[in-house]
Amino acid sequence: MERRYRMGKLKIGWLATGVLAVAVVVVAVLVHARFRRDIRAAQERLQSGGSQVIETDCGSIEYGNAGNGPPVLVIHGAGGGYDQGLLIGSQMFGEDFKLIAPSRFGYLNSPIPEDSSLEAQADAYACLLDALDIDRVIVVAFSAGGPSGLHFARRYPERTTTLIMRSAISYIDPSNAEDREREARINRVIGSDFVYWLGTTVARSFVLDLLGVSREVQAGLAPAEMAQADQVLEAMLPMGQRLDGILLDQERELPKDFPLGLIKAPTLVIHARDDSLIDYSNGQHTAARITGAEFMTLRDGGHFLLGHYDEIRARIMIFLAETRE
């Protein structure tokens, strides 16, 4: 009797283990199917996004464009590409300006040339404008696009009508242990399409926190504002096509004594105090060093300035009207 009882328990244990194994396999299959679906949708979005690769005197450059009106060169941040540039540009300008959004070196279909310096990247923007027969532009630099935006404004003052630095880097010190650990955490999330997708699917709050929108900021977001955050996260897929550019960005250095004072373009700096990715001190540094720069300080909104898009757009329109030649 006891032997039959033990055998029964053993069979039940085997059955439970089998059921659990089948469940794990089913879940894995469903997760992988959803991942493949979302990656396919992201790739289709890129293919239909209207970008093109153009040959310039500086080599091949991918760019996208949208809208009509005064030209705006939108320089995207880490994890971006032409698509992030167009998204950032539309948030700031709407459809009444012509947005020109290149993919920086190593992002999407823009290769990394032999000379991949910030100076060379700024020259590549000028080459792109030459190829498009555009003389002068409003320059918008977002996040890690800040350093090359500053170099462009410094090297091409005659082509920069105004400079807008949005949550942008204005100096890069040599990496310390804390910086390297943060980069390592970010790289673990963005190191593959699947890991990034899984993070944004099951741990979105953690990924947003990692990318400069703290949990405190997230807690105060309205549904529409959270949808804007989701849009930015989804626009970073497929991440694998952006990784080379991210790694290149992490190698950059821009000393604090870079001659920002030689930038003559009217400049508007926009930064949130609670930006946990690009510290607020970057905005302070830019505004203090560029003569006559205006500083739009936001109390909250995190790195993506969530909840302030209408306010930002209105301020930009006033700034452009006041500085129009």
Word description of this protein:
This protein is α/β, with parallel strands linked by helices. The protein has a domain at 49-175 and 242-323: Alpha/Beta hydrolase fold, catalytic domain (Rossmann fold). 50% of the residues lie in helices and 14% in strands. It contains 12 helices and 8 strands. It has helices at residues 2-47, 82-93, 118-131, 146-155, 177-190, 193-202, 204-210, 215-219, 223-234, 243-250, 280-289, 309-323, and strands at 52-56, 59-66, 71-75, 98-102, 137-142, 160-166, 267-272, 294-298. Strand 3 (71-75), helix 2 (82-93) and strand 4 form a beta-alpha-beta unit. The chain is globular, with a radius of gyration of 23 Å. The relative contact order is 0.12. Residues 22-29 have low confidence and may be disordered.
How would you summarize the topology of this molecule?
Elements: H1 2-47, E1 52-56, E2 59-66, E3 71-75, H2 82-93, E4 98-102, H3 118-131, E5 137-142, H4 146-155, E6 160-166, H5 177-190, H6 193-202, H7 204-210, H8 215-219, H9 223-234, H10 243-250, E7 267-272, H11 280-289, E8 294-298, H12 309-323
Parallel strand pairs: 3-4, 3-5, 5-6, 6-7, 7-8
Antiparallel strand pairs: 1-2, 2-4
Helix pairs in contact: 3-4, 6-7
